[in-house]
Design a protein that fits this description.
alpha/beta; Nucleotidyltransferase, domain 5; 6-stranded mixed beta sheet; globular; DNA-dir_DNA_pol_A_palm_dom
């Protein structure tokens, strides 16, 4: 039986992984782990797919190699690898050692040379007399340099095509398919073509196609020059031109030297024995678990049990990935059983639960029960007890995802009241940047154990998770935020989703037709301005028209792949130079409105009620802001004509009005309060227009002299500076010179010195503590602030300045929603007022037509006084039959 030996080109794979993944990947201690994660991901994929018997790894050393000594300019153009990459190499070697993989390094040689040597040593093992039998060598690498070592199917190369997941195995057939050459001819090919990445010169003027054709024809570099010197060039197919012959003759020495530089050495003095690469014997399971846990590589721990070697029992899983077990679950088969279990809940006053259409699973202390949900709700007595348990103030409920629980219970007329603990929301407050807040994921992250697949046991895991999370919430001073904002607002969101908002389907259909006509008109307009028809949605075709055909000039950035960008921000720069840019932007705006909102809308409207029930995501942003989906109502255009037409489709129910309550300049007011900037606070207290006041201070003019452009530029500064806008950003937005832009920003920070001080304080706090907080305690962790990469530091500094302001605004809006919700659930108001939507700083209600003024007065008062600030909060109130056509309420 053939055994498999995998030789890892550690150097190539580390570089490939580092550049393939974002530098934001870090360990719990803030150490970069993108290369570690990528490298280990490929290692696990290789083990799973190839099931190797032996593994060895090779790495470059920092010292020069024999190639550098022979050619001083070898790899001279290579940029020095960043410190973040170098720092991860020792960690990767630790991981390899834990996996039982020996690491080979040798001064004066590259990793490829060591691979060539190890391959040759294994090739020369006496197969007949060897206890291991025949061996296939698989080279695992991040580049194609080792393809020259391929030997039929006995030596193949396992490498990456794209990213770190798309892999390919090169045998001799695949090499021939890619290059038209045999593996052993690749060095002859590089002798002619050279290798720019390693600064191997080759023959000047000979490119890939010519080099490939020459080696295909002559077989090798030696044969090519032998034929040239025999002067048989006219008999060759294809014939060689005099010009090409001259190039080859003038650069003969360089061609052979380049071939030598490209050739992997196969006889390095290495002490290698095959049993050293027997990774299964040398595996340290406990160390793998400890390293993965320390580095925060929890998703990789989960992948361990996907590997057949683990599941077949050849390897015992480390403790960190064992499945969590729990006590047995008592099945409640009849009314007597359920009544007895419910009595325990009432007696203890606390239970954890998981609820669905089939089962009601719950735990009291460590005693777990499972009841059939239909049996519970269909029995009058049991239903009443269930109602008492969930609605009773004296019983503490522990669950996961209370928003969905509230929606589920309300369908049966049961409310969720009293003290509650939601493990999903606790996880969100403790780690706001996760993509997955499922119970499985957060339990694994907390305990490094998988939960049982038996769903009836979920409540015991929920209870255990709650205990750990409670400690962390208290330690990180997040209890108040959790108990007074996040948990209560989940109930508000659930009722909003269930209520939905009424949609005028006819208006949507009419708008769809209008937009289709408008898109066609704009398409013709763009084609006319371009002088040619093309696909406007194709960045490649658009770029060709703008910059090659129309020759539009401007400072336009390029994409990561080197193409000229046609992003909206870049087209805006061109709008003044050529009208086509403005037309394209308009086309894109209308096209997005159609595809994102208009087209999907009919499928999203509940056919029975005619209402739209958007999903409000409480854990979708790091700032605490709510997100919405199906559809995303946060991004509906407000100021455009078509955006307003779209809002007209959101209508009030018969006998009701839509009433909008919108906080005025909320984030700027919070910025004034947090920064304690005296001028800003004074302006808000006097009721001045803050942008006009800013223009007065920055441009040194009287209020009456502030024109529209000055106010616009002041507005850009007010919002932009707080969100990290620099000189270039303001220059682009205002159109002034860079020097003037710098002068205005310097003046702004001088006049509003409290803002300047706040910005500096937040950056210092982030560096000291690793996080910043909102007024209400919501934290934003910023490990990037300690990076050695300037770009990462700048990004973290912007977040440090922005989060306390934007996050505090998010917290305040949620608090307002809770307080208003409590008011409209008063028996005297209930059924007269419904909270429908929350978009940015605006709350949209449906209010009984006869009560609009009275209800509006009260809600405005609640929202403006929900929290005490050093500046007044102002709420603008409007009402109407639809969301677009609204008017102020007299006296409110």
């Amino acid at each position: 039986m053939t055994k498999k030996l995998v030789l890892i080109d550690g150097h190539a794979l580390v570089h490939r992984a580092f550049h393939a993944l974002p530098p934001t990947l870090t360990s719990p201690k803030g150490i970069p782990t993108n290369a570690v994660f990528g490298f280990t991901s490929v290692l696990l994929k290789m083990i799973k797919d190839l099931k190797p018997d032996y593994i060895a790894a090779t790495f470059d050393l920092a010292a020069p190699t024999f190639r550098h000594e022979e050619f001083a300019e070898y790899k001279i153009h290579r940029e020095k690898a960043p410190d973040e990459l170098h720092a991860q190499v020792p960690v990767i070697k630790e991981i390899l050692m834990a996996f039982g993989v020996p690491v080979y390094e040798k001064p004066g040689f590259e990793a490829d040379d060591l691979i060539g040597t190890l391959m040759e040593k294994v090739k020369n093992l006496p197969v007949g007399g060897s206890p291991v039998g025949e061996i296939q060598t698989i080279i695992m690498t991040g580049d194609l340099d080792t393809l020259q070592l391929v030997d039929g199917d006995k030596v193949v190369v396992f490498t990456l095509r794209k990213g770190i997941t798309d892999t390919i195995i090169y045998n001799e057939h695949e090499v021939l398919k890619r290059y038209g050459l045999k593996p052993e001819q690749l060095n002859d090919f590089r002798g002619l073509k050279g290798d720019p990445s390693d600064n191997i010169p080759g023959v000047p003027g000979v490119g890939e196609k010519t080099a490939s054709a020459l080696i295909q024809t002559f077989g090798s570099l030696e044969s090519l020059y032998e034929r040239i010197f025999k002067k048989d060039k006219e008999k060759t197919k294809p014939p060689l031109s005099e010009k090409l012959v001259q190039k080859l003759l003038e650069n003969k020495d360089m061609a052979f030297f380049s071939k030598k530089l490209s050739t992997i050495v196969r006889d390095v003095d290495l002490d290698f024995k095959l049993d050293k690469a027997d990774w299964l014997k040398n595996l340290n399971q406990k160390e793998i678990g400890n390293l993965f846990k320390e580095l925060g590589l929890y998703s990789l721990i989960k992948r361990l049990d996907e590997i057949s070697i683990f599941s077949q029992g050849q390897m015992v899983l480390p403790e960190t990935v064992k499945t969590e077990t729990s006590a047995g679950v008592k099945k409640l088969k009849n009314k007597k059983d359920v009544t007895g279990a419910f009595s325990e809940v009432k007696e203890v006053g606390e239970f954890s639960f998981d609820l669905n259409n089939e089962f009601f699973d719950f735990c009291v202390k460590k005693r777990c029960f499972s009841a059939v949900w239909p049996m519970v709700i269909e029995d009058k007595d049991l239903f009443k007890t269930t109602e008492d348990i969930f609605e009773g103030d004296g019983i503490f409920k522990i669950g996961h995802d209370f928003k969905e629980t509230v929606k589920f219970l309300l369908r049966y007329g049961i409310e969720l009241n009293g003290s509650c603990f939601d493990t999903k929301l606790a996880a969100y407050l403790l780690s706001s940047d996760l993509k997955d807040y499922s119970l499985d994921r957060i339990y694994f992250d907390e305990f490094q154990k998988n939960i049982s697949e038996d769903s009836t046991k979920k409540p015991i895991f929920i209870a255990k998770l709650k205990e750990k999370q409670s400690e962390r919430l208290k330690k990180e001073k997040l209890e108040w935020l959790f108990e007074n904002i996040e948990v209560p607002v989940a109930k508000v969101l659930a009722e909003m989703e269930l209520r939905g908002v009424l949609i005028d389907a006819k208006a949507i259909a009419k708008l769809s037709k209008l937009i289709t006509v408008e898109i066609s008109r704009l398409e013709k307009e763009v084609h006319k301005l371009a002088g040619v028809e093309f696909n406007i949605n194709s960045p490649k075709q658009l770029s060709k028209v703008l910059f090659d055909k129309l020759h539009i000039k401007g400072r336009i950035r390029k994409t990561g792949k080197g193409a000229i960008s046609t992003a909206a921000s870049e087209l805006e720069k061109l709008a003044e130079e050529h009208p086509i840019a403005a037309s394209i932007l308009k086309y894109r705006e209308v096209q997005k409105l159609k595809t994102t909102y208009i087209d999907p809308f009919p499928t999203l409207i509940n056919k029975a009620t005619g209402r739209l029930h958007t999903t409000l995501n409480q854990t979708g942003t790091t700032t605490g802001r709510l997100a919405s989906q199906n559809p995303n109502l946060q991004n509906i255009p407000i100021r455009t004509e078509l955006g307003q037409e779209f809002r007209k489709a959101f209508i009030a129910s018969p006998g009701y009005k839509l009433v909008s309550f919108d906080y005025s300049q909320l984030e700027l007011r919070i910025a004034a309060h947090i920064s304690q900037d005296e001028k800003m606070i004074a302006a808000f207290k006097r009721g001045e227009d803050i942008h006009t006041r800013t223009a007065v201070e920055v441009f040194s003019v009287k209020p009456e002299a502030v024109d529209r452009n000055m106010r616009r530029d002041a507005k850009v500064m007010n919002f932009g500076i707080l969100y990290g806008m620099g000189v270039l950003g303001f220059q682009r937005a205002s159109g002034v010179s860079r020097e003037r832009a710098r002068e205005f920003i310097d003046k702004y920070l001088k006049e509003f010195s409290g803002i300047a001080r706040y910005m500096n304080d937040m950056k210092m706090k982030a560096r000291k503590d690793g996080y910043v907080s909102t007024i209400f305690g919501r934290r934003r962790w910023l490990p990037e602030i300690r990076s050695s990469m300037p770009q990462m530091i700048s990004q973290a500094e912007r977040m440090a300045i922005n989060h306390p302001i934007q996050g505090s605004a998010a917290d305040l809006v949620k608090l307002a929603m809770i307080k208003v919700f409590e008011h409209i659930h008063d028996p005297d108001v209930q059924d007269d007022t419904f909270l429908l939507l929350q978009v940015h700083d605006e709350l949209l209600f449906e209010v009984k037509e006869t009560l609009v003024k009275n209800i509006a007065d009260k809600i405005k008062d609640i929202m403006e006084n929900v929290h005490k600030f050093d500046v007044p909060l102002i709420v603008d109130v409007k009402y109407g039959d639809n969301w677009a056509e609204m008017m102020e309420i007299e006296g409110v």
